Every structure is written in C-alpha cells, then in structure tokens.
Amino acid sequence: MRLSREHPRYGYRRIAALLRREGERINVKCVARVRREEGLQVRKRQRRMRRVRLGQQGRQAAAHRNHVWSWDFVSDQVEGGSAFRILTLIDEHA
What we know:
28% of the residues lie in helices and 19% in strands. The protein is an alpha+beta fold. The chain has a domain of 37 residues. The chain is elongated and about 70 Å long.
C-alpha cells in the first residue's frame, strides 16, 4: 500500500487505477478491502456551516404556540450494524 501512503487523499478507485498502470492485475474491491484492513481510509471532509449574512433575517422568536418550529435529522446505528434516522420536531414556544 505504498501508493496509499504516498497519496493520502486518493481513494481506492484511483489507487486501483495506478496499480493497473504499473501492470498489476487487481480488483477494485480487493484494494478497498486491503485499505480498510490497514486503516488507510480517506477521511470525509467536514461540511461548512452556513452563516447568516448581514442582510438576512436572524432567528425568529416564538410569540405563541405553533409559531416557530425547529427540525433536525438524528441518525444512529444499532449494535447489529443497521442504521436508522429520526426526524425530530420541536415547538420553540416555551
């Protein structure tokens, strides 16, 4: 996995293509498995947070019930490995 260490931002498909150029007969799935076992996965980039611009309205304050709602997706994984997502809704009136 010399190529993975030389090019840490390359994914398994690009590494497999480089190996094929060097004359290796290798499957993409095999490259992915070996990289996973060696801990050479490419880290996901963190998404940027959207900022409120000066001309935009800020957060609304709830004046009465059912006026302002907040929502968010929450995801988790159970012990068996399957993932689930939940949509949470909150009325912001106190």
